[in-house]
Amino acid sequence: MGAQSFNTKHLKTLERHHDPRSVFESAERAHRAGFDRLSIDLIYAIPDQTLAQWEDDLKQAFELPIDHLSAYALTYEPNTAMTARLNRGDFQSTPDELEVDMYNSTLDAINAHGMQRYEVSNHAKPGSECKHNIAYWRNENWLAIGPSASGHLDGYRWKNTPRLDEYISTNDAGFAPICDLETPDPKRSLMDTIMMGIRVRDGLDEQQLINAAGKHSRSTELNESIQDCIKQGWIESKNGQILLTDDGYHFADRVARDLIGVARSALDHIRDRFADHTVDQLLLVPRHQAIEQRVMLMHQPVNDLHRIIDANLNRASEGLRVLEDIARFSLNHSSLSERIKVQRHLLRKGIGSLKLDQTQLLNARDTEHDVGTSIQTPTESSRLQGTSDIASAASKRAQEALRSIEEAAKGLGCSGADFETIRYALYDIERDLLLLLLKGIPDWPLCILISEELCLHKSIREVVRDIARAGARCIQIREKTMSGRDFLEHATKLTTLAHDHGLSVIINDRIDIALICNADGVHLGQDDFPINTARTLLGPSKYIGRSCSTIKQLREAFVQGADYCGLGPIFPSTTKVKPNLLGVGLLNDVMRNEDLKDRPMLAISGINTDTIDQVVATGFPGVAVSSAVCSTEDPYEACKLLMDKLLNRESCGV
Fold it and tell me: If we measure between CA atoms, which residue out of 641, 573, 635 comes closest to residue 604?
C-alpha cells in the first residue's frame, strides 16, 4: 500500500489524493478480506518535513500489522511537476544532514519492530522480503502484467502500454500490449547488475565483476575503484562479496556510479556483436512470437480515418473512465457513476456500428511515430485545483474525442449520430460532476462534537489527535460559554490541528468564526440563520448542516441547500436535557424514504458504545457523539470501537 505519508500537508505536497485515514481503513478492509501480509511504502525528505514528523510517520506505519516497509527518500526526476516546483522556488530540497538523520531513524524503527534491511530502502521481517524486488535487483526474469508494467525475460526488456483500453483491446486481439522493447544487451545487463546489486544486503560477487572487466584489460582499474571505495569507508570486501557499509548506504548511488564508470568503458564494444542484426531478426524467436506478431501487424497498410477513430476512441474511453472513477471513489455517488458507465458502453456500441474490425483499429495505431505525443502545453502536467481540474480536463478530452470520432465516421460513410448523443449527455454529466466536486459530499460515519469542558481526562488537542488516529473524519467545535475573541483563537488553533490530521472541521452556530478560521463549514439549529442566507455568507465551498427532528424538517433543509443534517434527539443525553426523544423508530422511517436514505445525515444524542448497535441496525449513514468519546479516559479506544461498529455494519445484520 502506497501510504507515502501520514501527514495531510505532506500528502498534498506530493500531490497524492488520499488522506491518512484511508490508509488505516484500507488496511483494515484488506485484513478482513483475507490478506495476511501487508507492506507499506513511505517517502521521507519531503519539503518542510521535520525529523519528528518522519518519526511520527514511522510510528503510525508500525501501528499497522505490516511485515514489510519500503522507505524512499524523495528524489526530483527531470521533467516532473515536483522538479518544476523546486526550480520555481516553491520549496527547498531537504538538507543532506537531515536526510541522513531520517534514514538512521528508519533503521532504529525497523530494528525495534523485528525487521531487517535487505536493500537500501527496503526492510522486512525474516521471510517477508519482496520476491519481485529481489528478482529485479538480481537482474533475473520477471513478467509484466497490467498496463505500464515492465518485464524482463532472457535479456529482453519491455514495457506494456500505459493505456488501459489499449492494453485490453490488444490482448483481446491476441497480441502483446507492448509499447517499448529493448533487445538483449550484455553491457546494459552488467550495468544493471552493478547498479542494483550494490544496493542489496548480499552485495556483488567481487571476482565475477573483476573477471568480466578483465576480459577487456580493465580489471586493474576496476580493482582500484573498489579499493578507493573501501578506503572511503563506503564498501567492504567480505567472503568474496562487495558489500555496502552502514555509512556506505548513504552513498549507494555514488558507489554504483564509480564502479559503472570503469565497467562501461570496458564493455563499450560488446554492443558491436549485435550490429549485424535487425530488431526484427532479434525478435523472431519462439519465446517472443507475440512480439513478432505485433511487429508484423504494425507494417500493414493504414487508413488515416481508422487511425483517427482508434486514437480518439482510446482518448474518449480514458476520459470517461477518469470521470467514472471520480464519481465512484471521490464522491461515492452511485447514480452519477452509473450514468457515466452507461455512456462508456454506448461508446463501444457506437464503434461497433461502424463495422470496423478490431484488427483494423490496431493496425492503424502507431504511438511511437505519433507527432502529438511529444507536444505538451504548460498546463498539461499541472492540475492546480486537484480533482475538479482533473475532472474538467477529462470531460473536455472526452468531448473533443467524441466530436472527432463523429466526423471521422461521416468520412467512412457512416452516421455520427450515436457519438453526438453521447457528447451532449457528457455536457450534462460534466456540469453535475463539477458542481459536486466544488466541495464534495460529506462522508462522515462518525462526527465528534468536541468542547473543552467535555475533555475530562486529556487535553482537547490530545483528544483531537486520538480521534483522527482512530479513524473519525469530522469534528464539530462547540463552545457555548467562550467569548467571541477566545472562541476565535481556540477554533483557529484547533482547526489547524484537525486539518493537519485529515479531519473536517464544522463550527457550531458561528458563521463568522467558521469563515475566519477557515473551517470546512457551520452547523445551524432550526432557529439559526436561514440556509440561503448562510450560503450567501459562506459561499459554495463550505458545508452547511441543519439540526432536524422530523422527516418534514429534513426534506425542507435539503431543499433549501443543506449539505447534511443532524437528526435527533435519539436517546437520553448526558450533556443536555432533551424531553422529546425520537428513538430509532424515526431512523427506520427515514431509511424507508427513497429521497432521504442516501443523503448525508448524522443521528445525534445519547449515542455511545451501549446504543450504537441499535443505530447501526437501521442502516442510518452516520452518527454524532460527544461525551461518549471526549469524556472517556481513552478517547482513542472509544472512538475506534464506534468506528469499527459503523464500518462493519454486516456484523450487526445490516
Answer: 573
